[in-house]
User: Fold these one by one.
Assistant:
Number 1:
Amino acid sequence: MNEKGLEREEIISVLNKSKSEDLKYNRVLSSMCTYPHEIAIHAHMQFMESNMGDFGLFRGTYDLEVSVLRSLGELLHHPEVSGYMTTGGTESNIQAIRSMRNIFQRKDKCHKPNLVVPDSAHFSFDKVSDILDIELRKATLDKDLKVSIDSVRSLIDDNTIGMVAIAGSTEFGQVDQIDILSDIALENNIFLHVDAAFGGYVLPFLEEQHDFDFKLPGVTSIAIDPHKMGLSTIPAGVLLFRDPGQLESLRADTPYLTVSTQYTLTGTRSGAAVAATYAVMNFLGKEGYRKIVADCMEATYYLLDRLAEIGIYPLIEPVMNVVALDIPKADLIRSTLAKDFNWQVSITQNPHGLRLVIMPHVTIEMIDSFVQDLRTVLETI
């Protein structure tokens, strides 16, 4: 920090230069985030100073959060849901499993708890294991890249506190057989957390219906991210609990604030993200989200048709707007696309392939340009 501050114009110049060096979304086919909706940006700016860590000072913003939770609870078939807005899927996943662990420990269990997750689970669950000192047991996937039910059953024992199911896996966009996992959770009296950080704003608006939410009685918590397909601003996640006791297990006393307790992982929380989420959800409504999802799926199928013209096919038929391609030398192709054409794509690990996410910023023109560049790369490697 300088002794004397810089002129405003100099700061703006530095900011503009830094912004210009960021990659624009029109070359990004790997991200599960996109440009936020205009009304979300407006709301975010209006509520920049609101701190939900001490929401007694910001009761209006708190009321917006309550409204967001109620709306998502209704969407996910449990209007009486408990929870709060987080920074995103990672925090939501940590807190969901922390709640499981806290309740497990109160039952006087003396052995180290374990958690059963799919091999396709987000890397945040590895963080969960490290932070909470929970053994992570990874179940294998079946031929459709869903978690193997037999593998899950084989990993459950007396110290299993819960399971994780994925509704829109990060790599493949696949949805586990959550109806069966719900039954297993009830049979074993354990928790079932659904990571729907991406799929939560997609699955309810698809023509084909998928059972993944609180409609299933064994589902005890859900993570869903408004800053992905919800088109809110970053950071905006939501953690939802079926039972208020799960949220209560996260309670911490806060005697010096205007509110006496917190249930959150972070202290300071963004009221701006709360307002942005409220604004965009109420502006778009279900009808608006159905159109956004339909447009993304139309672009996804168009991409598949164009890729078929050059002999490239998906590892699985896409469930949502995530495409994993069965393509050799995926690492080399990815790096060449980035170096020679500035395209940002990603790879899947097991099975190995190229991964594309068809977000609302992805246009037909982008797809045509990408396929042409991919064809060129394939012809030269």
Note: The first strand starts at residue 82 and ends at 86.
Number 2:
Amino acid sequence: MRMWPRSLAGRIVALTLLALVISQLVSFFIFMHERDRFLERVILGNMADNVAAAMRTLEFVADDERADAVAALSTRDLRYRLAPTPGRAFAGRSDAANRFALDMARNMGMETDRVRVAIGPGLARGPNRRAGDALRMAVQIDEGAWLRARQMVFDPTRHWARSSLMTLAVSAVLMVLIVVLTSRRITAPLRELAGAAERFGRGEEVAPLPEYGAEDIRRSVAAFNRMRERLARYVADRTRMVAAIAHDLRTPITALRLRLEFLPDDDNTRSMAATLEDMARMSEASLTFMREEAATEATRTVDLSALVDALCEDYRAAGATVVFEPDARLALVCRPAAIRRALRNVIDNALTYGQRARLVLLDDRQAVTIQVLDDGPGIDEAEMARVFDPFVRLESSRSRDTGGTGLGLSIARSVVQGHGGDITLANRNEGGLSVSIRLPRTGIN
């Protein structure tokens, strides 16, 4: 399962939330540290002042009345009592407690050994602090008499963690809403650019994109518009040039045919006539190929299974052996006329060199694959890439007697690639050739 978003807007949201969580955690730990130091100083400072005031009060109280005075000085949070010893709570004191005891002794003007401090588990020790004997202090009044003080600490920030989580959740929701709205607006030109590039790559007409958004995005859109214009101009110039050459060849070919009519009928004239016939077919095929390249067709949703079945039925009506067993309805967004043209070229090759063709339709949800199987001699592995080049015919299995010009597979590949797909060849183990046409479902928007 992918945890990291794939879209730019999703990644902006994820990075924003990550930055928010990290900043909140850093703030939380800084606050906890500073809060602990603040509470320790405040609580210990107040306790030292209160204990010093209590000791000064006891100086004016008779010994037999000290117990009542200590009880009167006690409050709910700070309680005093007299005892002959400091108590067991001060055994094994921590370094922090010793430092506080030293500071208190200095502030009260007393010897250090007459002051004891014990820091309880509830004082300034994290979010699990509880009210209780957070701090104990014992001060020796005179020989055999110690004034014990017990400070009850109620942490005013004990609910801070819960409040922080609520604040974090509210901030995250608001930030996600803001980032989603702004990121969608920021990435809108990129989505338009991606869609236009996909359509232009399939040979569709694409109008110049509006240049708006951030400066970097505007430059990218402007560069795409310039590229689109240059490529369209280049393709148009190439198409016109090849079409003009193929068209102009008709005149000298026709003139040569007429001249041959006045020559004796022998092997040389028959060979020259065959050559002229090949040139005429190549010229017509070139014109057809360029018209196919320049042609544009609107895309629409079709039942590919029905389209293939109807095409095979046309072949069967003409007496050809073409086998296809239609399955369930298979919807695909495509240019149906172009798909029929590509399939017709592949099926023609299968019938010419394999005498029969069998079509299989496969669906793997992401793409649709049309396999055309024949029983011919197959193709050498080293030659498979060449057969898609224009005017290439493999003489070992495809002779001029077949009447082909070598443009059928070129046209088929152009159509398939125009749909964002691919066409591949493979020799079958049982003999024959397998042509696989893979058409992605997302190839056309």
Note: Residues 122-132, 396-400 have pLDDT under 50 and may be disordered.
Number 3:
Amino acid sequence: MTNPPNQTAPAGGPLAGVRVIDLSTVLMGPYATQIFGDHGADVIKIESPEGDSTRWIGPGRHPGMGPLFLHLNRNKRSVVLDLKTAQGAAAMRRLIEGADVFVHNLRPASITRLGLDYESVSAINPRIIWCGVYGYGEDGPYAGRPAYDDLIQGAVGIADLQQRSGASEPRYVPLTIADRMVGLHAAHSVAMALYGRERTGRGCRIDVPMFETMASVVLSDHLYGRTFEPPSGDAGYVRLLSPGRRPYETSDGHICALVYNDGHWQRFLRAIERDDLRTDPRFADLSSRTRHIDEVYGFLGQTLRGQSSDHWLALFEQIDVPAVPLNSIESLLDDPHLAAVGFFRQVEHPCEGEIRTFGTSARWVGYDVSQLAPAPRLGEHTESVLRECGFDASALVSLLVSGAAVSEAAGVQVSA
């Protein structure tokens, strides 16, 4: 649920005082750093003069402020540096001197060419937590290859699992699930590294490869019978792969229900007056139902088609079996539970006007994580952040005139 303002909590979240230099683009890295910013970190987003490409995705009110960018880059400050110039690279090194965390999603060869590999960055700041998120681990033959969410979904078997579970052909899940999962892994890895640094005083390097991370996620469900040597069965968790595992059609729509454990089944079969099945060995226990999962799901599908969605939702609530209506994205916006917990926030963006967003889903007691700073305009904070790092007016003018830095402000006049 979203956190309401906490009048007794200190200003800022648990990461207040932590400065993150975010040299990541698109989704995976920005999602990790969004989590840092949401929890109080000062996230400095380093952008090229062209800006993060997500600025240009989707409908927007002004160029460069698309909906994906607005959500992924709230609670961040935008600094534009051309890192291929000597002055831009020097400014980046100055930022790194005072940072706690450095995050990037460039390929290893690219980050090395920029002089921002771990060895170079730790030489500037030995306490820094350096985190690289990219496609593949450096020890294997895929090292250095480009990687995107779709490619990783295919490489780790997700698209194939879609077909095995009933789709007519391999399909990608319609979510950037690999980017999000790997971003979460990066966020918790950095949090653990910060905790370790508190005890040891040492910074460290963290590599978070997409392929290996998502392979572990998929295989934790689907290694299944191939867990054992020799195998005790095939790979693939049969319940998840059954074509019947889908929202159930009712007489007037669809619902989502999970008649799962032994208690659920006994109460459900009693409620629909199918006592004959209460002793049927196929329905006897979880192990047996798993072995006969296609029959089990087939029976549920046939049964639920006979009554309305409201009938089944009321019955499932009465007998304490988990069930929910089937939402669309549009109906989710009006979900009564999300409304009751204050999930959605209407905020005023300084240039985009009123937008709908959402806060952190975890509830914190003792910290205030309710504040949402709007996603920045390209180069909005270039001057203020560089001033904080010790650049005086003449140094700023030099950076801006040369094009090594770009400010949102028109012209290059900088007040002393």
Note: The CA atoms of residues 26 and 54 lie 5 Å apart.
Number 4:
Amino acid sequence: SLEAHSNHPLAKSLAYKGELFELTELSEIAGRGITGKINGKSYFAGNDKLMKELNLTVPETEDTVIYLAESHQLLAVATFNSKVKAESSQTIKTLQGQGLKAVMLTGDNRNSARKIQELVQLDEIYTDLSPEEKATIVQKTPRAMMVGDGINDAIALAGATIGLAMATGSDIAMEAGDVTVVGGQLHKITTFFEVSRKTMRKIKQNYFWAFIYNLIGIPLAALGLLNPMLAAAAMSLSSVSVILNSLLLTKSKVK
């Protein structure tokens, strides 16, 4: 009943189509979980951080877990063991081959995160993070690109040099990011870099040819050697050439 009101991806996997309890005083606890009252009694669903705040002891696990509790008693545990996408390892390897450092920021526990690190060969991991802690790490990292899809990633996405949101995630993440990857395919992160590099090359080419036009045309005009009609035509030709060169990007093939 609690998780039916949460936007977290794990909450969606707990979706129940039967009758749910009526909730009052429902509120999300950022980076930790959700709470609400059923028949006047408070219930909490969330991670181990939330349980520790309630002074409850929870077992260590290598999986991602959602705990259900009352104020003074642990009631249930839901364990999640998701598969790593097949393209994850290759995407990370490609990015590392381009000189980038792959770091995972997660609210999950360290044991769970280490499993992922070993599977996809991440350079570094930070675990048990709140949304604010993710944002602090990103903001302290020069030229950081943050990739995320959840509500808990939104602050970090907004604070990164480049915020790249996955379209399969939450709306708030896409609003916070600078770029949205359509389809949720991880390999498109490498495509983003490829498109960026090609765009920068076009910009430099356009600057070069515009500079050459002016380098030749301005001295000729200053010496009175350039007919005003020809000067106007040359300026128009300069603008057209820049536009046409930029439009060639649409013909560029990317993976």
Note: The longest strand covers residues 74-80.
